[in-house]
Amino acid sequence: MLFSSTTFIFIFLPVICFLYLLTKKQLHNPILLIASILFYAWGEPRYLAIMLLTILINYYGALFIEYAREKSFNVKLPLTITIIANLGFLIYFKYFNFLISSINNVFHSHIGVLDIVMPIGISFYTFQAISYVTDVYRNECKAQRSIYKLALFICLFPQLIAGPIIKYHDIEGQIDCRDVTFEKVDIGVKRFIVGLAKKVLIANTMGLIADKIFSQPADTFSPFIAWIGAFSYTFQIYFDFSGYSDMAIGLGLIFGFKFMENFNYPYISKSITEFWRRWHISLSTWFKQYVYIPLGGNREGKAKQIRNLLIVFLLTGVWHGASWNFVIWGLWNGLFIVIEKLTGLSNNSPVSRYNCLKHIYCIFVFVIGWVLFRSDNMSYAWLYLKNMFGLVNVHDEIYTISYYIGNIDIITFVAAIICSLPVFIKLREMFCYKGLSQSKAISIVGNLWLIILFILSVISIAASTYNPFIYFRF
After folding, report:
1. 48, 37 in Cβ contact below 8 A?
2. What gap in Å lies between CA 345 and CA 363, rounded to an integer?
3. Do the Cβ atoms of 154 and 172 come closer than 8 Å?
4. pLDDT of 179 above 90
């Protein structure tokens, strides 16, 4: 079930909110747990058992970790077994066929691949489960004695499918005690509408342009159109994923939860290091806390720091998908972060004569990276990149520019550029996120604007069959 579907907006969400907001606190967790299971089962009923098994494995894994600590046994053993079990599901469903295909290509073998469909959200809830058992191992929290509360943490529906990735120690207290206030609900609804508009009005429009261009052979359009396709996807993936995160954070507030921010205007970055502090923050912090720091971080000299950074970004690429272009994309980002660490480019000064050039450099790097990310394979990505820089003899150009982009698309492009910048951040906070602490005039203007956005979003949903979420397949 999509957040940007009429079924969710007009049936599922109102029913759950009605039951949740009009019942006693003691019933809040059971209602959310049942709602989360129904939400997941709606689109993936056959894989519900995998998620429930994940809950059981991590529930007993954490208990065994505490038991081993009390009895002075080897605590790492139950942790290792539990993490391997978590990763086993992920590797099988997400990477098994990729590994077999790679082996066949290298050794010219003919091992058959399996008909495997990856469960939606498995990358996200697997990482959340690993954070839980690791936190218990580190003694940062106690093992959850209630399997129902642990199940709620792992399968909480607002962030189940595409994050933000929630770490257990950040939300442990909220599972047991949280307040549902009118102000939180007010801010949550507004945040949800903003996210819905970002997804439906901007990301979907940009996605249609990108799909038209990337569906053509990479040598059948001009370099100008190639750049349009690259920037279209650059905006699509940002507004698609940040829109989903806004909706998830808004839904969390409605039910009394406070989730971490997942995006902070990443396209204003002046280095790739800064970009990854602003992009998919929950994933970046997860890798920092559970991979980079345990590997040694920057504590053991430059050489090992470089090794650790490259490992993290290799894993970041692999996490996003079972394809060589994701591996190359991860290493592409890691390479520039290493260069920035060695040259000092990551040390961004607020005032510098070179900030404009650094910003252009950063845009160039992440746009190239998104071409690698979007392409179906490295052969297509390489040809597409060569086309962008005029290194391809374009032939049989089938469509003119008007086929790919129209007047409404140009307006959306302008809106995407503006909304990628923090130029309206004060107005956004004033209209959307200040809740009840604002004047009546500002409240009325803000509410009218949000109503218009909501109506336009619903009209767009009803009029179009194009409504994917990019990160659902990761």
Report:
1. yes
2. 14
3. no
4. no
pLDDT at 26 over 60: yes
> If we measure between CA atoms, which residue out of 331, 352, 207, 336 comes closest to residue 275?
336
Class of residue 366 by CB neighbours under 10 A (exposed 0-12, middle 13-18, buried 19+): buried
Predicted pLDDT of residue 355: 81
Binned at pLDDT 50, 70 and 90, residue 16 comes out as very high
Distance in angstroms (rounded) separating the CA atoms of residues 348 and 354:
10
Q: What is the pTM of this model?
A: 0.91
The one-letter amino acid at 425? I
Q: What is the DSSP letter of 271?
A: S
Helix or strand run (H / E) with residue 468: none
Indicate the residue type of 420. S
* pLDDT at residue 291, rounded to an integer: 93
Domains of the chain, by residue range, sit at: 6-178, 184-270+348-473
Cα 127 to Cα 96: distance, rounded to the nearest angstrom? 18
pLDDT band at 432; cut points 50, 70, 90: low
Q: Write down the residue that tokens 């038209």 correspond to.
A: 212
Give Cβ neighbours of residue 72 (< 8 Å, ≥ 6 apart). Answer: none
Token pair of 336, please? 């520039």
Each residue's pLDDT tens digit, 380-412: 999 999 999 999 888 777 788 888 898 899 999
Indicate which residue of 108, 110, 280, 320 is catalytic: 320
- The pLDDT, as a whole number, for residue 298 is 84
Residue 299 CA: distances (Å) to CA of 267, 292, 337, 339, 434: 30, 11, 17, 18, 41
Please give the residue that has the higher pLDDT: either 113 or 142: 142
Q: 169 catalytic, yes or no?
A: no
Environment class of 60 (CB within 10 Å of its CB; exposed 0-12, middle 13-18, buried 19+): middle
